[in-house]
User: Fold these one by one.
Assistant:
Number 1:
Amino acid sequence: NAGVMQNPRHLVRRRGQEARLRCSPMKGHSHVYWYRQLPEEGLKFMVYLQKENIIDESGMPKERFSAEFPKEGPSILRIQQVVRGDSAAYFCASSPGGGGPNEQFFGPGTRLTVL
Amino acid sequence: GEDVEQSLFLSVREGDSSVINCTYTDSSSTYLYWYKQEPGAGLQLLTYIFSNMDMKQDQRLTVLLNKKDKHLSLRIADTQTGDSAIYFCAEGDNTDKLIFGTGTRLQVFP
């Protein structure tokens, strides 16, 4: 059973370009979370999605950032018109949902560098 | 507001015990978690504790929870060089986001 997959692992963009980050959850997991980690800091929650629905986007910047988790295919975090401050590691996590502890399984992350 | 704090660094000798501390503010948290992050990698869930428990032991790991003081600790017995990593505590309920601490960098020296 493959773990959470993220691609690309490293992404370099120039200011003003678009960045698309992909996340395939673990098999059987219907809940996806995106977090951002700035250098030397902890992870900050961005958005929580279930299939075709955004459940909680309280951590998403109001502009330029969007996320989706379509019925088929991976979850996508999209950053339009990237700026230097967007440089960070972006982690995706998935969980099976249901009651009990929210055991989130993390992918290896995408490290975005904005030049 | 939600805030989780940890000390930044801990250095221990191989074979000694390590204790990593964490304080949190959200008294409604249902579960508290400990994650490990090795360089360049994602986070690995080590253990979690339900908020109505005081202690949980899992092999070399012991989690202590003082709910009154909102204090959580992770004790690693017989610390090895492979335990060198950043350790994050996190709080959350059973459905939504996790609030992570700032991380404690554990360095184990021979």
Number 2:
Amino acid sequence: EIVLTQSPGTLSLSPGERATLSCRASQSVDSGYLAWYQQKPGQAPRLLIYGASSRAPGVSDRFSGSGSGTDFTLTISRLEPEDFAMYYCQQYDSSPRTFGQGTKVEIK
Amino acid sequence: QVTLEESGPVLVKPTETLTLTCTVSGFSFSNARMGVTWIRQPPGKALEWLAHIFSNDERSYNTSLKSRLTISEDTSKSQVVLTMTNMDPVDTATYYCARNPGDEYDISGYYTLDYWGQGTLVTVSS
């Protein structure tokens, strides 16, 4: 199965700054079938990015995804107060599907 | 409006079998490539993918939990059921179901997870 490793574990930034989150796969996600989710405390995850780079409906253009093969990135261009949360990547290229362990974006 | 709602016991005893139901509305489970996935999250920990079932009856399970999991669907009731046998305190978690949107997305999004239930916390304790 594909193991996803996210880094860093925690990202401490100020509002207005740029956030760069990494997701590395143990083997190639050939089709680019990688998604990013945002989760706030007490809430279910929310789909942000699918297919490595496509924004889900209603998602702000502050969020962008990139990457291919084994290395993927989620970028938040200018952090807004509501963006401080946990972020998970997930591959759906092969079964079993797997999630990364998450990156927490916290206010510095 | 697409909704998913998890239901089941809030407390189970060790060695018991857990049965969770995901009731969906606002979409037809019979649509091409559409599916439902179960995910769990222990308190303070990461998401863990458990199982999925698709409209073509394809099923897949978490490798390490495969022997304990069964996923099934009742299209007439718009429900997907997950059973997990031999429950242990380490299985204490919030259990979510989520939709795989199939043809409602372009091909790169068929199997992502676009709508989620609010989750149900299951505690395993004697």
